[in-house]
Every structure is written in structure tokens, then in C-alpha cells.
Amino acid sequence: MAITQLEKGIFLSLFNRGGYVLDFSTNDFDNFTLMSVGVALCERYQLSKGKSLTAYLDDCADGDALKLLNDLLEYYELHYEDEYVKPDVSEKRPYSHIRYSAEYARYYRKARAVIDREIAEHNPFEGASEYLKEQFSSEYMTAQINSLMELRTTNPTDAIGKAKELVESCCRTILKETGVKVPSSWGMNELIKETKRRLDIDTESVSSDLPEAQTVKKILGSLTGLVGGIAEYRNSWGSGHGKAADFEPLFVRHAKLAVGSSVTLVEYLWDTYLWRKEKGHLR
Questions:
Q1: What residue numbers bound the domain in which 16 lies?
Q2: pTM
Q3: How remote is the C-alpha of 61 from its chain's centroid?
Q4: Does the pLDDT at position 142 exceed 70?
Q5: Domain boundary, last residue among 82, 105, 120
Q6: Are 66 and 28 a contacting pair, CB within 8 Å?
Q7: Domain final residue pick, 86, 120, 154
Q8: In the chain, alpha helices (H)
Q9: Are residues 112 and 148 both part of a single domain?
């Protein structure tokens, strides 16, 4: 769905500071909007920065509005943290001319929720998830992937838990297909280690004589780090463990990171399995 006029007003209340837009000079603002959406707003409208932004949001397509508002919000998050994060009185922070504002903090939270909602409508992993559902050809795996794609925006905590389960399910499927009896005690690290060994994508299988050996080993070695990161995400913020009463779930963007990592990893492992199976190179 598109950002409504009422929601655009939230962003304008956050960014428009009496005709100014945040701390941009006119030249900097034109350069920023030119890089973001290809239009130098003040040059086009011959108005103040705030009025030019308002005029553009009234004229532009929905996708351009989302792009510019998202870019401005990222700029705000980078440069105005002191304004929307309530300070800890016990924490010594370096001096800043920006002070915390409950009003702007409220506008920020509403604006961030709108952007998260809109970006969630565009799923960059849709093609990969449909491919994996087709390849796995299993009702369980299909249901798991569907759940993962939905939960990434509606329930980030559960999505992080499902992301780990997707990787585990992929590894167990590959190991079963290659005749490996998986002990029930195996966790994520054991599963991925044996899967890599079966697919000959462990670093030890790369010949040091190859000119690209170090690069290949670096990429393969990063798989372990990726898996470990997903597991830690799940243990700290996912649905697999009980949480304290003061538990605060992560933002949607964090769930997307876990989901995106798991989908990318599973697609790579499954493609490698299918290629080696076709070539008759499975262990």
C-alpha cells in the first residue's frame, strides 16, 4: 500500500524545521534529493526546502515518495540519534547541540513504522523462496518457507527462530539424501559442518595450487560465520527460548537480515547439492 497523505504529514513534521529540512543547506539538500530521486527539489520548485519537499511529495509517484522519505529517515537516524533516543542519565555522552525531544521521538517511531511496513511489501527474496519451495518438493519445507516469508514482517521474533530452522531443515534434507544418519544431538554447527563436507565445500577441499584459492577459502569460511550468526540471533532474540518479562523484540529490519541470510545460504547449499548430484560428484 502507498504512504497516505496523513502519513506524509508525519514525515514532514519530523523533517521540516520551520522551512528548513533538518540541517541541510539549500545546495546540500538539492544534491541529496538529486542523488535520491533524480530531482533537485529547491531548483525545481523555487521554494524553501520545507515547501519544496511538501510540493514534491504532493506531485511524485508513490515509489519516489517512499525512496526519498526512506533516504531522509536514514539520514535522520545517522545524524539525530540524540533527538529520538532518550538519554541514560548514568551514561556520559559527548556534548551535542541536539537534545532529546519526546515529540520528535514520537514522530520518528511512527515514521519508522511506516517505512518498515512499506518496505515489507517488497520481498526481495520472493523468487528465491519460490524456487526453494519447488526444489524441496516437501509440504513441510513449503510450509516452513511460507511461514518464514510472512513472519519476517508480522512477527520478527518468530521469523528469526524460523530462519535457523530453515537452514537446519535444508542440511538434514541434504544429509538424508546422501545417506547420512544424523544424530538427534546434532546442532547447527554439526549439521552445517557435515553438509559442507558432503558437498565438498569445506575449505580443506580447495587446492592451494589454484590462483583463486585464498578467495574461495575466505568465502567458504564465511559460511560458518553466517550460520553462527543466525544461531546467535535465534538464541538471543528468536522464538526458540523463553524470554524475560522485560524482553524487547528486534525491529523488522533485523528479522529481514536473519531471513535474508538463511534464504541465501539455503539456496547456495541446495544448488550445490543438485549440481553435484547431477554430475555424480556426491560423496
A1: 5-120
A2: 0.48
A3: 25
A4: yes
A5: 120
A6: no
A7: 120
A8: 5-15, 26-37, 41-45, 49-59, 62-79, 81-84, 102-120, 126-136, 139-154, 156-177, 188-198, 213-237, 252-279
A9: no
